[in-house]
Amino acid sequence: MGILSKRAAKYYFLHGLKLSAVSIGSILCVGFVWTLSMFGVDDWNERVIRMVLQFTRYIVPYLNLCYSLYSPSWHDSMVLSMGARRKDIFYGNIIKQSVFALINVLFFGLIALISGQTGIVEQAAMITCMSLFGGAFGLYMGHKVKKYGRVVMMAACFIFIIFYMGTSLLYIVDGGFMAKIETYKQVLIAGAVILFGVMEVLIYRVNKKSMVVL
Amino acid sequence: MGILSGKNIVKKYGKDTVLKNVNIDIETGKIYGLIGRNGAGKTTLLSILTAQNPATEGSVTLDGEQVWENEKALSRICYSREISQVTIFGPNTLKVKDYLATARTFYANWDEEYAKKLVDLFDINIKKKISKLSKGMLSAVTIIVALASKADITILDEPVAGLDVVAREQFYKLVIEEYANTGRTFIISTHIIEEAASLFERVIIIDKGEIKFEDNTEELLSRAYRVSGAKEAVEKAVSGYKVYNSENIGGFEAATVLAEHPVEDFGDGVQSEPVSLQNLFYAMCVNEEKGA
C-alpha cells in the first residue's frame, strides 16, 4: 500500500467516523424526544427502545445512501483535485461506507443486547447489507448526478415515490405485508449482497474516468 | 531537469473539440505563463496535464512516466483550483480550515508553517465557510494551497482574478521568492497579462484549442514590434514580416509585427517600438478574428 493510498484511506476512514457520529447523534436525539413524549406511560422504556431500534434499522441504510449520493461531486472531486488517484477514491468510499455501517450496527447491537432483544445477529446482518447496498447505490447515482445534473436526482426521487406508494398500497391492502417480508430476511440479505457487488463493479467503471468538478 | 509532456492531446465534450492535437513540453525549474481568451482551452489543458480530467486522445508524462493514476508523478504536481461558491453540496460548504486540513492530508510536501504564514498574510478567517468568502479571499485560499503544497510543479488557474492590487503584488512577490528559494516550476494562467508578464520566463499562447506559441517571453518580445507611420511606408516596411494586426488611426497606419529575429531598423518614414505581451496577444487574437 503506497503512501497516497494510506492517506486516502485515512481520510475516508475519518470521514466515515464523522458521519457515524452524526448518525448516532441523530438517533439519540430522536430517542430523547420519544422518551420525553412517552415518559410515565406503562413500559415507556421498552417502547422507546423498540422504536429506536426500528428507526435505526431504516435510517442507517438511508443515511449511507444520502451521504454517498453527494460524495462524487464533493469529497471525491476535492481529493482528486489534490492529487489522489481514482482507485484510492474507489477504495476510500468502500472504507467510509463500511465504517459507517459497522459503527451504526455496533450501536444497534449494543442497544439490542442491553435491552435483551432476540435475533440481534440476523438484524445486524440485515442492516449491514442494506446499508452497504444503499451506500453503493447512492454513490453510483452520485456519479450520474455529477455527469447529467439534477435531472437524475429528480428521476430517482420519482422512482422512489412510485416504489413507496406501491409498498404503502400493499401494506394497506395486506396489513401483514411487512411481516411477510421479514420472513424473507435471508433472501433480502443475499439480494443486497449481490446488488452491492453489481453496484461496486458499475462504480469502479464510472469512477475510472471521473473528473474534477469543483 | 524534468519535463511534463503532453503529446497529441485531444479533448472532446460531446461534439465540441476543446483541445485539438495539443503538444506541449513544460520544463521544470521555470515559470510559465499560459494565456488565452475565455474558452480557449486553458483550464481543460491544465486539468488534463495534471490528470484531473481524462483526455479523449493523447498522453501526459512526467519524466517519461505516465501521470495518469501514477502516485510518484501526482505527488510532484499541484493544480490548485478555485472552488465554486454556488454549489449546494460541495467543498464550498467546508470551512477554510477543513479545506486546508484536507490539502495537508493529500500533499506529500505540505508546509504547515508556510500555510499559516500565508493565511496571516492574506488575512483569511479560517473559521469561515468557503461559500461565505469574498472573491478575493477565495483566490487567496487557492494561492495558499498552491504555495504551501510545495509541489515541484505548481499550477494556478486565474489566481489573481479576484485579488486587489496589493494582494496581487504580494502574490507575484511570493511566487518570485518561492522560485528563487526552491526552483519550483509554476504554470500560471491569467488574463491580467500586463502585470504578470515580467514574471513569466516562458509564455504559452493558446487559442481555440490549439497552442499558437510556446517561447521564451523575452525572446518573443524582442522580435515583436509596433510599426507606425504613413500607410504606404508601413506596408513597405512590414512586407516580408508576419503582421498580426494592422490598424488605421487618423490616417496613420500601425501594424503589430512578429519577426523571425530582432530587427534593427524598419526603414525610413516609419517608427517602431517594442510591443508588450498583452498587446501582442491582443494583435494575435484580433488577427485570428479577422482571418475567421
Notable characteristics:
heterodimer, A: 214 residues, mainly alpha, 8 helices, B: 292 residues, alpha/beta, Rossmann fold, six-stranded mixed beta sheet, four-stranded antiparallel beta sheet, 14 strands
Please give the structural blueprint:
The complex is a heterodimer of chains A (214) and B (292).
Chain A: H1 3-38, H2 44-69, H3 72-81, H4 86-114, H5 120-148, H6 150-173, H7 177-183, H8 185-207
Chain B: E1 3-13, E2 16-27, E3 31-36, H1 42-49, E4 57-62, E5 65-66, H2 71-74, E6 77-80, H3 96-106, H4 112-121, H5 135-148, E7 153-157, H6 165-182, E8 185-189, H7 193-196, E9 202-207, E10 210-216, H8 217-222, E11 224-230, H9 231-238, E12 242-249, E13 252-258, E14 270-274, H10 277-291
Parallel strand pairs in B: 3-8, 3-9, 6-7, 7-8
Antiparallel strand pairs in B: 1-2, 1-4, 4-5, 9-10, 11-13, 11-14, 12-13
Helix pairs in contact in B: 4-5
Quickly count the helices of chain A: 8
Alpha-beta content class of chain A: mainly alpha
Q: Report the uncertain regions of chain B.
A: none
Order of helices and strands of chain B: EEEHEEHEHHHEHEHEEHEHEEEH
Looking at the overall shape, the CATH architecture of the largest domain in chain B is 3-Layer(aba) Sandwich
User: How can the largest sheet of chain A be summarized?
Assistant: none
